[in-house]
Design goal:
The complex is a heterodimer of chains A (about 160) and B (about 280). Chain A is mostly helical. Chain A has one domain: Arp2/3 complex 21 kDa subunit ARPC3, CATH 1.10.1760. Chain A contains six helices and no strands. The radius of gyration of chain A is 15 Å and the shape is globular. Chain B has about 280 residues and is an alpha+beta fold. Chain B has two domains: about 40 residues, no CATH class; about 160 residues, Thrombin, subunit H (Beta Barrel). The chains are: A mainly alpha (about 160), B alpha+beta (about 280). Chains A and B meet through α1, α3, α4, α5 and α6 of A and α1, α2 and β1 of B.
Chain lengths: ~160, ~280
């Protein structure tokens, strides 16, 4: 329980940093998605229940504080947390590149499904081509911040005695 | 082994069940408002913390900008000192004109009779994703803010005139925070008119970050750099609030009307303090 609360704290800190300080660090108008990177790394190092729980929590916070309609972020972060945690049993999760691929696919998954959900809700049904550049920029930024996050979380996980 | 497989099956079942519930929730929330009590509680807890962190971010961003611009600032300083002496001379002449021009006096009176009550507030956090342009401010029902109140900022145009620039509107309110959707958000739409010709249209935000507008009728009289203001139709936005200038004019696919791209007068990435106009809608 103590470990799980530690992870909850970690995700909440990243959420606060993401919604405040990181908003001033935009490249080509795009900010990195620290929350998603942290969620993927934690889910990969733990299991599907932890990943799903944290995803549900951070998605809920995003929807309740910013979204016009409730549920889209909750659904996507929940799925990313659960599926990453589930896949962690079948991959060598301690390798940096494994984390890199998961962040890459996690970001793609988030944006593609985000686009389709909003397309079917008829909100911002612009051509997907317009959105490709911001998505690619975010993927690049997420991969750049992955390394320090990966190193930092390794030491935090050691302190929390996870793995 | 059998237990492990059984647990996995149960996990998968719960996962699919939650996904189904969330999909239904999305469907329901498009027709109903969010549970405002819940968002009120969460917002009240998070907003003081986010306010501190947002201020820290703003301070760092300003310091960084200052460091980058220090050589430019020095040059500007020299130029500005030269301009001050020229302006001082001009000022004496202008004072003479102001004292004698009734028209200018009337205009001044009109502006000082701005009838709308407003609240100054600070941005405390922004939407964590890159799809929407939304932020929260540090004032809510405790300052009399209501849903659909208009968010503005005083802006200086290229003509060196100070105007009321439109930022967006309040879409949700808690006790000490409000959620604001900006006009360049993809879910936002504003009824507009061209200031020079009074022709109307509807402006919408787009994922690319531009504000695009479709005009109601066919016209050949649109020009790049024409100023765009709110028309007041729809009874959300007050009329004649400055939005920006036309940068691009295109024909729509049916070749009947025009689609215009507007560059907003407000820099949405560098917002810190805003004003909320408390509109009495009774």
């Amino acid at each position: 329980m103590k470990k799980f609360l530690g992870l909850v704290g970690l995700v909440i800190i990243s959420f606060i940093l993401q919604s405040t300080i990181l908003q001033f660090l935009r490249i080509l108008g795009v900010t990195t998605n620290l929350v998603l990177v942290v969620l993927v790394v934690i889910s990969l190092q733990t299991d599907e229940i932890t990943g799903a729980g944290l995803g549900l929590m951070v998605g809920f916070l995003t929807d309740i504080l910013y979204a016009q309609f409730f549920g889209v972020n909750t659904l996507l972060f929940f799925c990313i947390g659960y599926l990453t945690g589930r896949a962690s049993e079948d991959v060598y999760k301690f390798d940096f590149f494994t984390n890199l691929y998961f962040v890459l696919f996690g970001t793609l998954f988030y944006h593609l499904f985000f686009y389709f959900i909003h397309y079917f809700l008829k909100i911002g049904s612009d051509a997907i081509l317009i959105t490709i550049m911001p998505i690619l920029t975010e993927i690049a930024l997420n991969l750049i911040i992955l390394y320090p996050i990966f190193r930092l979380e390794k030491s935090i996980f050691r302190k929390l005695k996870i793995n | 082994m059998i237990d492990l497989q059984k647990t996995k099956k149960i996990n998968n079942f719960i996962f699919l069940l939650i996904v189904l519930v969330l999909i239904i929730t999305i469907g329901l929330s498009t027709t109903r408002n969010q549970p405002s009590q819940m968002s009120g509680m969460v917002g009240s807890v998070f907003s003081p913390v986010q306010k501190v962190f947002y201020s820290i971010g703003q301070t760092f961003a300003n310091s960084f900008d200052s460091l980058l611009n220090i050589s430019r600032i020095r040059e500007e300083n020299i130029q500005l000192q030269e301009r001050i002496s020229i302006l001082q001379e001009e000022n004496i002449q202008l004072k003479y004109i102001v004292n004698n021009a009734d028209a200018l006096k009337n205009e001044y009176e009109m502006l000082s009779n701005f009838q709308y009550e407003h609240v100054k507030s600070q941005i405390i956090s922004r939407d964590i994703g890159n799809w929407f342009e939304r932020f929260t401010i540090d004032k809510g029902t405790n300052s009399g803010i209501q849903i659909d109140d208009i968010v503005i900022k005083a802006v200086r145009t290229e003509d060196q005139l100070v105007k009321v620039g439109l930022i967006g509107k309040v879409v949700d309110v808690g006790y000490n925070w409000s959620k604001v959707v900006t006009i360049d958000d993809i879910g936002s739409s504003v009824s507009i008119k061209v200031l020079r010709t009074n022709e109307g249209g509807v402006a919408k935000g787009s994922i690319s970050g531009n504000i695009e507008a479709f005009m109601f009728s066919q016209t050949e009289d649109l020009r790049v750099d024409d100023e765009i203001v709110t028309s007041g139709l729809g009874e959300i936005y007050l009329p004649n609030i400055y939005i920006g200038k036309i940068v691009k004019i295109e024909k729509t696919s049916d070749l009947l009307t025009e689609k215009i791209t507007i560059i907003p007068v407000v820099d949405f990435e560098k917002l810190y303090e805003v004003f909320v106009i408390k509109v009495d809608r009774r």
